[in-house]
Write a structure and sequence with these properties.
With 430 residues, the chain is mainly beta. The chain has 3 helices and 18 strands. It has a 16-stranded antiparallel β-barrel with strand order 1-2-3-4-5-6-7-8-9-12-13-14-15-16-17-18. The longest helix is centred in the first third of the chain and has 22 residues. The mean pLDDT is 90.
Length: 430
């Protein structure tokens, strides 16, 4: 009994001592603890960055319902009813980036009237020693060429070149990506190497076969000592393809009648075969700052093999359900961008072409017995624009696409179709 009484007295004594110590704490101590807590919370919040941009725009095309690569075909939401003008939210990007030591977590989504879509979403780990090697896993832009990875918020034209939109729809894919970027202390400073192993499913779609694609890009870029000139050279490789299931193949060859055209491949019984997607490209950029303003020249050329359907050569997002046509292609783009003195204006001129089948052209396309179709038509696009940078976060762009197609024996493309587009876009970044 006495032991319980002693224990009770001891507890009361300790409680009184603790209360006494609390009552003796100075206001400065309380403030110090409060500030330390705020600092700890802020250090966590500083790791998270929220950014993005929106691109509302108005467009008009020469003829209602015309096909277009200036933001998509001019049809209503039902996919059929033709329109000739439209307001649209071309891009609505919201990006969340969280950095912790040598690890980055990033999620980027695109919100438009068409819905919500995934864009860059990945985990990136950089070596903590020399910070030269990094490995990313998830959804990233495909490291091929310059324009594919050049941000839509920075680009001086509304859209990428036609061939980039056809070969790399949405410009992204799922896979593993590695980068080597040499630091300034290295004799190889200026070189950057990007490689990836990806699904090869266009439009950020689920994988539909076991085949994986490889991409590689080598770039060298430098800035002059006076910082008035920057230049870069790059070369890219894409090696991949997709399994074609049970459909048959067409190859371009000399036909029995002596014409050049498509005919069935000699052996289409192997239903596990891979239709090859092999590309090679070179690119170059230079920017020079003078009293007249910043002058930028940019160009890229690509060639290779691209399988597709009879009517198109777009990279597929699912296993093909119709015959596959194998074509050799080439394409290119060239930019001329001129800052107007010290003003906030930029003048832009751009030319690009895409020839999906370099072995045939003009009136040979659509000729009876050749099995050629709209998927073989070359397009040349001339672009003219003016960009006004209101401030560092807002810019206004007016741009005109003059599109020319080959004149063929296909009735819909016997002459140049009226598909020129004017775009007026406001971009706001945050």
């Amino acid at each position: 009994m006495k032991s319980k009484i002693y224990l009770l007295i001891l507890c009361v004594f300790l409680t009184v001592v603790a209360k006494a110590q609390e009552s003796q704490e100075q206001p400065i101590d309380t403030l110090t603890r409060y500030v330390a807590g705020i600092g700890s919370d802020l250090s966590v919040l500083k790791r998270l960055k929220i950014s993005g941009y929106i691109q509302p725009q108005w467009q008009h095309i020469d003829s209602a319902g015309a096909p277009s690569y200036a933001g998509g075909d001019f049809v209503a939401s039902d996919g059929k009813s033709p329109v000739s003008s439209r307001f649209m939210m071309r891009r609505g990007r919201f990006k969340f980036t969280y950095d912790y030591e040598n690890v980055r977590f990033l999620m980027n989504i695109d919100v438009t009237e068409k819905g919500v879509a995934m864009r860059e979403t990945y985990v990136k780990v950089t070596d903590p020693w020399v910070k030269m090697f990094s490995l990313s896993v998830g959804c990233l832009q495909v490291p091929f060429g310059y324009e594919v990875t050049y941000s839509s918020s920075e680009r001086e034209t509304p859209e990428r070149a036609r061939y980039n939109q056809i070969l790399f729809p949405t410009e992204r894919d799922l896979g593993i990506f590695g980068t080597i970027e040499f630091p300034s202390r290295s004799p190889l400073y200026g070189f950057k190497i990007d490689v990836s192993v990806i699904n090869g499913s266009a439009s950020v779609s689920p994988e539909f076969d076991n085949n994986k694609d490889f991409t590689g890009r080598l770039q060298y870029s430098r800035t002059s000592k006076n910082e008035k000139t920057t230049y870069a050279l790059g070369t890219s490789l894409y090696n991949g393809g997709y399994r074609t299931g049970s459909v048959k193949d067409y190859e371009f060859k000399t036909l029995p009648n002596g014409e050049e055209g498509f005919d069935f491949a000699e052996d289409t019984s192997n239903y596990n075969r891979v239709s090859k997607r092999n590309y090679m490209g070179i690119d170059a950029q230079v920017s020079i700052s003078t009293k007249a303003g910043i002058t930028t020249l940019r160009g890229e050329y690509i060639t290779g093999e691209q399988p597709g359907s009879s009517s198109a050569s777009k990279s597929p997002s699912a296993m093909p359900t119709s015959s596959v046509y194998h074509r050799d292609f080439n394409g290119a783009y060239f930019y001329f961008i001129q800052g107007i003195g010290q003003s906030k204006f930029q003048a832009v001129v751009k030319y690009d072409w895409y020839d999906p089948n370099t072995k045939i052209s003009g009136k040979e396309i659509g000729k009876s017995g050749t099995n050629t179709n709209t998927g073989d038509i070359r397009f040349d696009t001339y672009g003219f624009g003016l960009v006004y940078h209101m401030n560092r976060n807002v810019k206004l762009m007016t741009y005109y696409d003059l599109v020319k197609n080959e004149e063929t024996l296909i009735s819909a493309y016997s002459t140049d179709i009226p598909d020129n587009v004017i775009t007026v876009r406001l971009q706001c970044k945050f």
